[in-house]
Amino acid sequence: MSNIVDNSSALISRRIAGERKTHGWSLAELASRSGVSRAMLSKIERCEVSPTASVLLRIATALDMTLAELLTDAREEPRFQARADQPSWIDPATDYHRRQVYLTSRLPLELVEVILPPQASVAIPASSYAHIRQVVWVLEGILTIAQGDETDVLATGDRLEFGPPADSAFRNDTNMPCRYLVAVLRQR
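Predicted structure:
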């Protein structure tokens, strides 16, 4: 059975509330650690709003998780998984589509396929890179990645290894979708 976490606010809210309770934290504590307001966290947990990728990244980081770990349960991942059963999620703000190709508790590796729509941008806080190393490989299109003071433009086939944690932005400045693979190595 698939463990897809899609745009369902209910699935995301249950996961966040469950992880918060596992840590023994109040909403105020998670707000303090994540930089997401207590009011926003309350709305997310009550299914009143659908969080964006940037908000979910801040929550995941506060919970000492990657975004993939927050959106899926790695303990349930089988050795083989058909494409149709790979967990996916769409950012309500940008329509950025994220498909979790690989995540397991057996290996510290994650593979994520992303389709970034034309003229879309996703901001990623430096804190989300605290316990990971990451490489991005462009499969189709052109992707602009700004990391701190550096900006790289990647075309089909290009790859970029991320350096030390820095606030970043993934941008598609073109009129065509950009599809890329993110390989994440968890370092905990």
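Summary: The first strand starts at residue 88 and ends at 90.
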